[in-house]
Amino acid sequence: MGPMTDFLIARASFLGGAARALDLGNTLTEFNQSLTPQQANATAMRMDWEMVGKALREAMADFEAQVAASDEAESVAEADEAAAG
């Protein structure tokens, strides 16, 4: 998980974890909150679409790299064929 997927979950620390072990009344539990449910939903949807965009950009970059490698390999093969001629 990362900042785009777990923004509603409070960040834990080592000392926080140690304190929770002794917190029998569960008084230390806290969550990041939004002012309204609609705001929380809008934020979650925005983060979801940002992650979709990131995944698409990565996929397009991978595809472009594969096409470039394929074109390069094809050019080398044509040059070898012409040299062997």
Give a verbal description of the structure.
The protein is an all-alpha fold. The chain has two domains: 1-33, no CATH class; 36-84. The protein has helices spanning 14-22, 37-84. It is elongated, with a radius of gyration of 25 Å.
Task: Describe, in short, the structure shown.
The protein contains two helices and no strands. It has 85 residues and is mostly helical. The chain has two domains: 1-33, no CATH class; 36-84.
Distinct helical segment count: 2
Mean pLDDT: 82
Please give the radius of gyration in angstroms: 25 Å
Order of helical and strand elements: HH
Query: Could you describe the largest sheet, including whether it forms a barrel?
Result: none
The portion of residues assigned to helices is 55-70%
Low-confidence residue ranges = none
Category by helix and strand content: mainly alpha
From the spread of the alpha carbons, the general shape counts as elongated
Strand content: under 5%
The termini sit apart by: 56 Å
Return the domain count: 2
> What's the count of strands?
0
